[in-house]
Write a structure and sequence with these properties.
The protein has a single domain, classed as Ureohydrolase domain (Arginase, Chain A, 3-Layer(aba) Sandwich). It contains ten helices and eight strands. Helix 1 packs across helix 10. The two termini are about 15 Å apart.
Length: about 325
């Protein structure tokens, strides 16, 4: 059995010290031999309300130091079965959103040439559009699980067509995703027009507004999505603002009446068995996260994503 990277344990070195990598995993400059590459995309110039998500990857990594390698609820042991490393942050252009999106897409093209599955720490949600462009070049139109308070189907924002609020309209127009296998979970709040959600439903998107999910377990919903997707290559994008701000206040565009942390765990765990080809966790804004609660939650959700990747469990 090959030696696989393990998180640095709290009894080997105090959790408040050591490397600032995700779960204090080894860092890597080479994708060779990796099954999973965790990377940061420290971008917030695609957001429209509160900034600060450029600091998201660093803070998620910091809070991840508390997470241990074995999932006691599900039995998953991702680091025993997958070779995982933190490959650092992409060198985005902090003065140009357009150039940053190009850099992300080109970087993903290179990552996807290897056997490493990318797991991204955002960054605002605009990062997902160039990721989906690279994913579609590799896999064709992918199924998409989109957990978010917002539909992200605006046509333009201040005249710009590529922002955190337009990603799914562009992905639909560019045939990056399979609209019949696109699932939006946690939608809520106010809108610009009565058609804000219904237009995407007409494209084929399946939608669950947060109000429909209050007081419900999401295990069954996750299982239904899993059965509906089948073995189609699937991308999972998880906006932390899908959670109610009582659970995740540190985000750029908070909306009340959201999902709970237990529901988030139920949903992700129920997706085990899907042919996931990549995922991201976006919109953590540390300046609005004074106690670190949002970043801690985000780090744990990323860990839960690792636990459902193909090959992560027996």
């Amino acid at each position: 059995m090959m030696d696989r990277n393990q998180p640095l344990g709290g009894n080997e070195m105090a959790r408040f010290s050591g490397p600032n990598t995700f779960m204090r995993l080894p860092s890597a400059n080479d994708l060779k031999g990796l099954d999973v590459a965790v990377l940061g995309i420290p971008l917030d110039i695609g957001t429209s309300w509160r900034s600060g998500t450029r600091m998201g990857p660093k803070q998620i990594r910091e809070q991840s130091a508390m997470i241990r390698p074995y999932n006691m609820a599900t039995g998953a042991a991702p680091f025993d079965r997958l070779q995982v490393a933190d490959i650092g942050d992409l060198a985005i252009n902090t003065f140009s959103l357009k150039d940053s999106l190009r850099i992300i897409a080109e970087s993903y093209d290179e990552i996807l040439k290897s056997d490493a599955m990318p797991v991204a720490l955002g960054g605002d949600h605009s990062i997902t559009l160039p990721i989906l462009r690279a994913m579609a070049r590799r896999h064709g139109p992918v199924a998409l699980i989109h957990v978010d308070a917002h539909g992200d189907v605006n046509d333009e924002m201040f005249g710009e067509r590529e922002t955190h609020g337009t990603i799914l309209r562009r992905a639909y127009e560019e045939n990056l995703i399979n609209p019949e296998k696109t699932y939006q979970i946690g939608l809520r709040g106010t809108g610009y027009a009565a058609s804000d959600f219904t237009e995407a439903a007409e494209w084929g998107f399946q939608q669950w507004q947060a109000g429909e999910l209050w007081h419900r377990s999401l295990s069954q919903l996750g299982a239904e999505i899993r059965r509906d997707i089948g073995d189609v290559p699937t991308y999972l994008t998880y906006d932390i603002d899908s959670l109610d701000p009582a659970y995740a206040p540190g985000t750029g565009t908070p909306e009340i009446g959201g999902l709970t942390t237990p529901q988030a765990l139920e949903l992700i765990r129920a997706l085990a068995g899907i042919n996931i080809v990549g995922c991201d966790l976006v919109e953590v804004s540390p300046p609005y996260d004074m106690q670190g609660t949002t970043a801690l939650t985000a780090a744990n959700l990323v860990y839960e994503m690792l636990c459902i990747l193909p090959g992560a469990s027996a």
